[in-house]
Amino acid sequence: MKYLLLKHYRGAPAPVNDVPMDQWSPQEVDDHIRFMNDFAARLEGTGEFVDGQALSPEGTFVRYDGEGRPPVTDGPFAETKDLIAGWMIIDVESYDRALELAGELSAAPGAGGKPIHEWLEVRPFLTAPPTVAE
Amino acid sequence: MLDELLLRELTPAVIGVLVRRGADFATAEDAVQEALVQASLSWPDGQPDDPKGWLVTVAWRKFLDARRSEAARRDREERVEVEPAPGPAESADDTLALFFLCAHPSLTPASAVALTLRAVGGLSTRQIAAAYLVPEATMAQRISRAKRTVSDVRFTEAGDPATVRRVLYLVFNEGYTGDVDLASEAIRLTRQLAAVDDGEETAGLLALMLLHHARRPARTRPDGSPVLLNEQDRSLWDTALIAEGVEVLQAALARDRLGEFQAQAAVAALHADAPRAEETDWTQIVGWYDELLRLTGSPVVALNRAVAVGEADGAAAGLAALATVDPGLPRHTAASAHLHEKAGDLTAAARLYAEAARTAPTLAERHHLTREAARIGQALG
């Protein structure tokens, strides 16, 4: 089963250890990045990693506005928007395993070397049920 | 043992022979790709004495097969019985023509790059797709479209070397992603171009690539994060490549027709020439940036120049130069942060580094700038 783990720039509840990253020490920044890299590497090892990318903080909502008209964009309302900072796709045996891994990822270290307790969104992919072969 | 590099080197010459015998470019290119696949299957058992002749013969058969099956589909019989003997052929002009065709102005840069890597570089669609991190089917479509776009271009039409150089520079900047090292591949192709095109800017491009490539072993840490120029372990730089780059550049500069690649290579040579970061000749570098700015008028050059001025004449002069550069440019904020730190304004520097991190164009830069912000934040207490 595939799941999408989403990190948010905005829109998610604030993490427990909510100190902006540029106010961490360089060592804390390094530790955080290493944690993320190690996490991905470990899931590659277990065969549970599918893909992961970081996204830029800008985003635009776009909507079709009828024949011959330019598409509607969402205008300068960025402050209220929910924006995705990055994502990781995992392929795991069960929903419980997906939650377990998301929980681990949420414990990435931040300021003071303490877990940031970041909220991650876990979204299952819609896929065909596994074929029953009997 | 399969000599994959030899196969790739022979590719443009073989396509050239087929086209000169009357094959259209798109079908010839397909036929040569099929011949390369066949070579990869047969050659491990024993490489032929005349690899090029072998490839020409097989590719020509593939081309005839393709033409026959197409003819059959249209319900027209066409029999081609005569098999021309593969002969030695002067291939320099063909290679240059192929370079021009693959960089044709009617192609988008992405398509020109893909077509160049396949037709001139001899890479397979799978390898190119892997290098650009797209599915093979996507790359196959892109290459097919590119070939259709240039199908009406006559092979003899004179092309523009500047376009070819731009395409090769794009390839070089992709660096290393798939199982093919695109930077090395770009250097190999630029050497081929330099062998058939005598222009000083082609030499300038080759020198620029060699000088950048020479520093590559020092540019990343084992975990993949980038190391800044002034922090690099210079003993890791490839001195042979640097020497070659400088030699190629000096020969080009001696012809006194300066172009942008030569000027960029001159900057790279001055960096490569410094045994320690503190010994970098920033005054000369500013001089070359002045030349580059005159040649290109590029705001990115103006931004780099401001950073160099900051090193040559002090932070205040650097900030004054930066003030004349469009603040909307990528990396403007990062440059400003650096110069403010140099000027001793740590509060502004911390704020600017944090802002630059938020808008960084790559993840590696975002990490680096976040670390810089954290470093200054710590110094401020």
UniProtKB/TrEMBL annotation, chain A:
Stated name of the protein: YCII-related domain-containing protein
Pfam families in the cross-refs: YCII
Family statement drawn from the similarity comment of this UniProt entry: Belongs to the YciI family.
Domain YCII-related: 1-106
InterPro entries: Dimeric_a/b-barrel, YCII
From TrEMBL, chain B:
Domain RNA polymerase sigma factor 70 region 4 type span(s) in chain numbering: 101-149
A GO molecular-function descriptor: DNA binding
Residue span(s) of domain DUF6596: 163-252
Keyword Transcription regulation attributed: yes
Domain RNA polymerase sigma-70 region, chain residue ranges per copy: 7-71
UniProt keyword list: Sigma factor, Transcription, Transcription regulation
Gene Ontology BP annotations: DNA-templated transcription initiation
Family: Belongs to the sigma-70 factor family. ECF subfamily.
Name of the protein: RNA polymerase ECF family sigma subunit
Originating species: Pseudonocardia sediminis
Phylogenetic classification of the source organism: Bacteria, Bacillati, Actinomycetota, Actinomycetes, Pseudonocardiales
